[in-house]
Amino acid sequence: MSVIIVTAAYIATQMLSDIASLKIITFLGFSMDAGTLIYPLTFTLRDLMHKAVGKKGARLVIICAAVVNLFMAFLFWLVARLPGDLAVGPQLEFSIVLSPVWRIVIASIIAEVVSELLDTEVYHLWVNKITKRYQWMRVLVSNFVSIPIDSLIFVWGAFGGLYTQSVIWSIFCANLFLKGAVTLIGLPLIYLIKEKNT
Question: 169: domain CATH number?
Answer without folding.
Answer: 1.10.1760
